[in-house]
Write a structure and sequence with these properties.
mainly alpha; two-stranded antiparallel sheet; 1% strand; globular
C-alpha cells in the first residue's frame, strides 16, 4: 500500500499543528498589506516536507525543543523568501496551483515581501542567539544560489556532464533538505558528529528527490507537471545526459538541436522523450536514485530504533515513490 504523508507524520502530529501557529506568529507584521500577504503565503502551504524533516530528525537524534520550532521556521522563512524572488525572476504567475505573489501584488511588492521574510528569519535566529542554526541555513541558501547560477551558465551550450549535473542538484535541491536534517539534529542537542551524519543523510535524500523529479518529465507516473517541461525549458536532466553520453555524433547533434530550438513542437519534444527512453536513460536514472536512497537508509539505521526513525525511513521511501 502506498505510504501517506499523514501516517508518516504521526509521531510529530501535535508538533506540526503547534508549528503552524508559531510560524504564523513569526511572520506577523503591523503593516496591513504585509500581514495580508503573509496570511496568503501560510494558506497555500504544500506537503510541509521540510518541517517534517526538521522535527523527525530532532526526535530521532534527541529531543524536540523550542529551538526545533525556531529552526524549522527559519528554514521556511528563508526558503519562502527565495521562492518569492524566484517567481519574480522567472516571471511566473503560479506557484503550487496558486497565484504567485508577483501575479497578485506586482513585482515591486513581491521583492519587498521576499526581503521582509529574509529579515524575519535572520532576526528570529539573532534574537534567540541560534547562530549555529543560522549558519547551517545560510550556507544552504548560498549553495542554492550558486547551483542555480552554475546551471544557467552551463545550460546555454547544453554542455552539462553527469558530474556537473550532480554538483547542480546537490547545491540547488539537496543542500536545502540537508540543512533541514542538520538543523533538526543541532536543535535536539546532538553531537557535531551526529549533525554531520544527518546532513549527509539529507544530501542523499535530496539527490534522490531531484532525480525523481527529473523522471516525472518523461511520464514515468501520474505527474504534477506537464510532460516534457524540462526539455522545453532547455534543462539538462540525468535521463537526457545519460542518453546523449551514449549517442552517436549524429544523434547527439539532432537531439541537442531540438532541445536548443526556440520553436519546439510537442511532436519534437516527444521525439526527445522517446529517444531517452530507448537509450536506457530512464532505467539509469532510477538506478542512480536507488543508490542515493540506499545510502540515506544506511545512515538512519545507525540511529536508535524509535517511531521518529521509522517515520524518517518512510519519508525517504515516500520521496522516491511519490507520484507528484
Amino acid at each position: 500500500m502506498a505510504l501517506q504523508l499523514k501516517e508518516i507524520q504521526a509521531p510529530i502530529a501535535s508538533e506540526m499543528i503547534d508549528f503552524e501557529e508559531k510560524f504564523r506568529s513569526f511572520m506577523k507584521s503591523k503593516v496591513f498589506l504585509l500581514d495580508k500577504i503573509m496570511s496568503y503565503i501560510v494558506k497555500r502551504k504544500g506537503k510541509q516536507m521540510r518541517p517534517m524533516f526538521v522535527f523527525l530528525t530532532a526526535g530521532a537524534c534527541g529531543q524536540i525543543t523550542d529551538r526545533t520550532y525556531r529552526g524549522a521556521s527559519l528554514i521556511e522563512l528563508l526558503h519562502t523568501a527565495t521562492l518569492v524572488h524566484d517567481d519574480v525572476v522567472d516571471d511566473s504567475n503560479f506557484r503550487r496551483g496558486f497565484f504567485s505573489i508577483n501575479a497578485l501584488w506586482k513585482n515591486k511588492i513581491a521583492v519587498l515581501v521576499g526581503d521582509y521574510l529574509l529579515s524575519r528569519g535572520l532576526l528570529l535566529s539573532v534574537d534567540h542567539e541560534d547562530f549555529d542554526l543560522l549558519k547551517i541555513v545560510s550556507e544552504a541558501v548560498r549553495e542554492m544560489s550558486e547551483g542555480e547560477l552554475l546551471q544557467m551558465a552551463k545550460a546555454r551550450n547544453l554542455d552539462i556532464t553527469e558530474e556537473i549535473y550532480y554538483d547542480v542538484i546537490r547545491q540547488k535541491t539537496a543542500s536545502l533538505i540537508a540543512s533541514c536534517c542538520a538543523v533538526g539534529a543541532a536543535s535536539s542537542g546532538a553531537s557535531l558528529q551526529t549533525i554531520q551524519k544527518m546532513k549527509e543523510f539529507g544530501l542523499n535524500v535530496g539527490m534522490a528527490f531531484q532525480i525523481k523529479d527529473d523522471l516525472f518529465d518523461y511520464g514515468t507516473s501520474e505527474i504534477g507537471k506537464p510532460l516534457g517541461i524540462d526539455i522545453k525549458e532547455k534543462k539538462m536532466t540525468l535521463p537526457l545526459i545519460y542518453a546523449l553520453s551514449k549517442a552517436s555524433n549524429g544523434d547527439r547533434r539532432r537531439i541537442k538541436s531540438i532541445v536548443k530550438s526556440n520553436r519546439q513542437t510537442n511532436k519534437k519534444v516527444q521525439e526527445v522523450i522517446d529517444y531517452v527512453k530507448q537509450s536506457g536513460g530512464i532505467e539509469y536514472a532510477k538506478e542512480v536514485m536507488q543508490g542515493y536512497y540506499q545510502k540515506s537508509r544506511e545512515v538512519l539505521l545507525d540511529l536508535p530504533e524509535t517511531a521518529y526513525r521509522q517515520s524518517l525511513l518512510d519519508l525517504v521511501q515516500f520521496t522516491i515513490e511519490r507520484s507528484k
